[in-house]
Design brief:
By secondary structure, this protein is mostly beta strands. It contains no helices and ten strands. Helices cover about 0% and strands about 50% of the residues. It is globular and about 40 Å long. This is Ig-like domain-containing protein.
Length: about 120
């Protein structure tokens, strides 16, 4: 079933480097489930941003999926930037639109990365 899912790896380079902050990249990937072989989950990776305060949400169409999301802590990279991984625990369904929304001070408006 997973082979039928269209994966469009999306990477955006924002590199705003403003006085207010920076956000280098946001990408979405399909990762295999370690607890349920044969199923996959969507992972939103937000890399090389500062300051550390950030908000990441998953959406199915226009509906926020707050109850099915697991995130790492914001992790320092050692160069004053941070990274965050946010996993959508519900396996994606064929024909359904998913997106990862990022809110950060370096962005003028929330950034939406669509998947599928």
């Amino acid at each position: 079933r997973e082979r039928a899912l269209k994966i469009s790896a999306v990477t955006i380079v924002a590199s705003l480097g403003s006085k207010q902050g920076k956000l280098e990249s946001v990408s979405i990937s399909l990762v295999p489930s370690s607890s349920h072989p044969g199923t996959s989950h969507l992972l939103c990776s937000v890399m090389d941003f500062y300051p550390a305060k950030i908000q990441v949400k998953w959406f199915q169409g226009q509906q926020e999926l707050s109850g099915h999301v697991m995130a790492t802590d914001v992790v320092p990279n050692g160069d004053w930037t941070y990274q965050l991984l946010v996993l959508l625990e519900t396996p994606p369904q064929r024909g359904v639109s998913y997106s990862c929304q990022v809110e950060h001070i370096s962005l003028e408006e929330p950034l939406n990365r669509p998947e599928f």
